[in-house]
Each structure stands twice: as C-alpha cells, then as structure tokens.
Amino acid sequence: MLFAYAWKGFWRRKTKSILTILGVALAVGLFVGVVSITQSVHQAVASSLAAAGADMVIQKRVEPCPWAEVKLPKDLAAIPASVLEELRKVPGVNEASGVLELWAFHKGHPTMVAGIDPTKKTLGPVRIAPREGEDEESAKCCAIKYGRYLVPNDDYYAMVTVPYMDAKHLQLGQKIFVGPDRRFEICGVVDLSGAARIAAAEVFIPLKMAQKLLGQGDVVSTIFVDVADARAIPAVQERARELIGPEVSFTTESNVDEGTAALAAVTRRSMLAVSVLVILFAMALLARSGVESVMERIAEVGLMKALGWRNADVGHLFMVEALYSGIIGGLVGCGLGWLIAWGFSVKADLKLPEALASFAPCSTTQAPLEIPLSTTPSLGLFLGGLFAALAIGALSGMMAARRAARMDPVVALRRI
Amino acid sequence: MAVNGYIRAQQISKIYDTGSLAVTALAEVSFSIAQGEIIGLIGPSGAGKSTLLNLIGGLDRATSGTLTVGGTELAVLDDESLAVYRRNTVGFIFQAKTLMPALTVYENCMLPLIPVPLPESEKHQRVEKALEEANIAHRAMHLPGELSGGEQQRAAVARALVNDPQLLLADEPTGELDAENAMRIMQLLQALNEQGRTIIVASHDPTTLQIANRYLRLSDGTIVEEW
C-alpha cells in the first residue's frame, strides 16, 4: 500500500516528478551514450584486425625510395621472411603470416599489389576461413565473391577486388599486367567491403611471385600475428624488436583506435570521465532536490507523524518516490543513450590510419579504410545505466528520509 | 488532588528554548483523567491547551515531570515507540484544513493505516467502519474541497478513528464551523465517548464544551480552575 500511495503522490506532483525524471534521464543518457559510442568505436576499429584474423600487425618503416617500377609502398621496409618462423616459436603464438605489399607500375600507373601466403587461409588481409571459435558473420572473412582463392602451386595467378574489377572492366580468366611486364590471370574476385582492411590491395598474388617481382629475396612488409592469449603480445613484440630492429611498429587492438582520426580530439578516457562527472553532479543535484521536497511537504510530514507514521515509515515513502524517479529516469536515459549512440554511428566518419593501408595517391581504387560503425544495445551497459539511475534515486531518497526523520511534528503541523 | 487514573500528569512542564528566549508553555501542571471521561480544556489562545494535547498525544515531550497514559510513562519512550503509541492509542482530531486536499475522504482515512502491517482487507474494513461512525460514508469518494465545513470535520473525525484509539484528542474541532455544525460534531464526540473512549477537547469557546464531564481552565501555562 505504501508503494501505491507513493506512486500516486509521485504523479500528484507532476512538474517536479517530470523534471526529476528528466534530470536522471539526461545524466544516464549521456553516460550510456558515451560508453556505447566508445565501445562501438573501439570494436569497430578493432574489427580491422579481426577482419585479418590477427591480434597484432608488425611493420618496419624506412625512408622511401622513389625510383622503381616495383617498390615497397610509402615508408614500409622489407622484413626477412625468416622472422615469421622465429615468431611462431614464441610461446602463445598460434600463427604468423607475412604479406608483401607493393606498388607495381605499368606504363607509369601504379597497381596496389599484396603478395599473400595461400596456405594461411585464416590470417591476412584476404582470408577465406574463420579462426577457431569465430563465426563466419563476425569474422568478416570469406571474401571470395567469384572464382577461387589462390593455391600454393599458383604462380601467375591473381585475385582482384570488386572495385578494381569494375574500374578496369575485368573478367575472370582475363590477364592483367602487374608491374612493367608480368601478366597474371584473374582466378578470383574478392569482396573487401564490410571492414577496414590492414594491408589491403587491389590485386593479390602469391607471396613468392610478389617477392620475385620486388627482387629483394624472401621478404615481407607486414606480419600478421594470431596469439592464443593477449598476454603473449609483449613477448612477441620483444622478440620482433630483437629480430627486426628499433624501427619496428606494432598495431594491436589497444592502440589502433588511438590512431583513428575521429578519436584524435577527444580520448576515450576523458569522455568517460566527463560522463561519470555528470552522473555525480546529477546525484548531488537530486539529493538536494530530495531534501527540498521534504521541506515543501513539511505539513504533510507532520500530519503523517501525528497519525502514527514512524520516522522509518516516512523515510520509506520518500525513498520509494525517489526510486520511482530513478527507475523511470533510468529507462528513459538508457533509451536516450542508445539513440545518441545510434545518431553518432549514422553520422560518424571513421577511417583507419593511412599508415596501415599502402595505396598510392594515384591508385585506381580507394583504399578500404572506411570503418563501418554499428551500435548494438548491450545488456551490461543497460544494467549499468539503470544501476546508476537507481543510485541517484537512492541517494536522493536517503537524504530526504534523513531530513524527514529529523522534522519536529509539532513545528511541522503549525505550517498547516 | 488525587493523582491516579487513565491519564496522570505530575508536575509536567514544557519550556521552549529558542536560544535567546525561553518560553514556558506549561508550568508544573498536575491532573488526573479517568478512563471514559470527556474533558474540556478551556483557555485563551496561548494558554497551553495545544501544548498539553501534544504532550498527552506523544507529539512532543515534556521538559520535566511525569506523564502516564494507560500505565505507560511517555518520557521513557523513544521516537519509534512514541509513533507506535500515537498509532495504537491516540486519535488526533485536528481542524478540517489538515485533510490532504488531493486525496478523497476515503484515502485521507486510509492514510494512518498505510504503514500498518495489516491485511489490505482489514484496512478497508476499518476505514469503512470509521466512515460509518462519523456519518460521512456517503461522501467517501469526494475530495475535501467538495465537502461542506461540517462534512470536512466529520471526515477528520473518521480519520482519527481508523486505528480504533482509546483516547481522542480534539484541538479546536469546531473552530471554523457554524453553531449548528459545531453542535453536530460535539454530538458525534459524545456518541464516541459512549463507546468507552476517553476524549479531551480543547477550545477557547466554552459554549461548545457542553458535553464534557469535567473542565480544566488553563491560563499562562497553568491550570487555574477545575470543575
């Protein structure tokens, strides 16, 4: 009966109750929205690693050499392929796969080429199988649209991307120039949409053929590493430094989002800090509001005490009313937060750092750097938002209950 | 004076200390009230009538002296026990303006029972019985603003009866009523007294206290006359 009375009383004071709900909703909405956005951005940019089936990407940077018909892109350096074998020996490493990215010029026009290891079907910029434990949908792999994947004994065969095929009006079985004078037959067409791709290219050829084109021996430019446990990453990094040298760079899930342009201005931590501060501010504001509401209802409180309500009974009433604010405000706030996150995902324009994709400025197609962003409501975040709202309501209720308990009924009744 | 009975007061005083000034609302008052009596408290405004009712009703505590109701010394009760005492033993009949304007008469009468651990059905039975006793059941679903002055006061009486108290304390119950309605309220109180309830009525108008068995006249916080 107390709950029913509190509910009626809550809606008798419509304006105050609605304003309180709005306050809670805005605070919770901001918190949920910010956390949802940062989570989804982090997941989205990390998906570029997931699309390659990798937990880490290793590259080496040097001064670029501009004069060659087949060259390493930008400032990428050649890494001996023997490093792969050494990295596979590091405890915790499931697999390591090397890719050789090239700019191959034919009659002055570059083609973005990546030499990939056809035996590594689950690791690399174009993979055709999910890792153990991944489902095909979330893996963003399995990119073959037409034709077939490269096989180990392939030599002058290539896979091309859908945009490249469309731009050049190509067909399966057709031969294309890769470099000044080598022609490769198109055996497959791959679809790289749906995720930003590290070490993406327009044309994929067997690694051994890419090494032959470059003419620098058994080398790779980018190493993808799949580890059993993220705790193995530091050991892999240390071994890679020993083998490759101090110019080595690492890209992992924890640092890839710091490179994306959208988060350059505001870091995840500061956004979270702001949202937590807003929650605390809302708590303080509504706690004060709770005390004020007791003072506004001083005559009612005095009457209740005169009619036999104990201090605890009066306190429970104010607590229940405050919790109603919290619950309703929390539900509205969670919905509002998800809307904020959804609005951001629709408008956001996130891209991978240019350093992770080596397309030339004059390439035929655009580098697949766009990061699709989606916000899926998370039960954990919903419960967290609701908990924050209830905490706000509970604090307000407790402050009101304390004030009501201290109220002298004789003094209160004089207000009637 | 023999200090024995249902309500016993021995040298009770109430002093309000406002910091710079101490106000003596009651000064060493002693009296005894037997169970089932109707007592009229008479005196001008500021004489201490409301203060005495508040002390007997457990709304306030005496500064000194002993006050016992039904064998219970009120001074030894903590806040929670005093609230339970008020709930179980006392029915306060305030002026009608203490009715909650946004609640119906029925809901106003339910107010004292909300925190009481009783089955819902029993609470409803008590409210309906109290409304019948106060002869206001036919207006149960109306808001106080829709009632006449007399009906509002009867609603206030009904609210005081829901916990079936043995002691009714009425502070100026006819204060804003015309003579006819005032008489009706006093007749209602008399009928309640005939059920065995002890009733103390405070009023500055002695003509409304014709139902009383005994009278205590207060002036400046002391009992100056008793008959």
Order of helices and strands of chain A: HHEEEHEEHEEHEEEHEEHEHHHHEEHH
How many β-strand stretches of chain A? Answer: 15
Percent helix of chain B, as a range, is 25-40%
User: How would you characterize the largest beta sheet of chain A?
Assistant: 11 strands, mixed
Instruction: Assign the structural class of chain B, choosing from mainly alpha, mainly beta, alpha/beta, alpha+beta, or little secondary structure.
Output: alpha/beta
- Specify the number of helices of chain B: 6
Give the overall average pLDDT of chain A: 82
How many individual domains of chain A? 2
Walkthrough of the structure:
The complex is a heterodimer of chains A (416) and B (227). Chain A is an alpha+beta fold. Chain A folds into 2 domains: 2-47 and 264-413, no CATH class; 62-246, no CATH class. Chain A has helices spanning 2-12, 14-51, 82-88, 136-139, 162-168, 207-214, 233-244, 253-256, 268-296, 298-306, 311-347, 379-406, 409-413, and strands at 56-60, 70-71, 79-80, 93-106, 109-116, 144-147, 157-161, 175-178, 182-190, 203-206, 219-220, 222-227, 248-252, 350-351, 370-371. In chain A, the strands form 3 sheets. In chain A, strands 1, 2, 4, 5, 6, 7, 8, 9, 10, 12 and 13 form an 11-stranded mixed beta sheet that branches. In chain A, helix 1 crosses helix 11 and helix 11 packs antiparallel against helix 12 (379-406). Chain A is elongated, with a radius of gyration of 30 Å. With 227 residues, chain B is α/β, with parallel strands linked by helices. Chain B has a single domain (36-61, 78-226), classed as P-loop containing nucleotide triphosphate hydrolases (Rossmann fold, 3-Layer(aba) Sandwich). In chain B, a hairpin with a 2-residue loop joins strand 4 (64-69) and strand 5. The longest helix of chain B is centred in the C-terminal third of the chain and has 15 residues, at 179-193. Chains A and B meet through helix 1, helix 10, helix 11 and helix 13 of A and helix 2 of B.
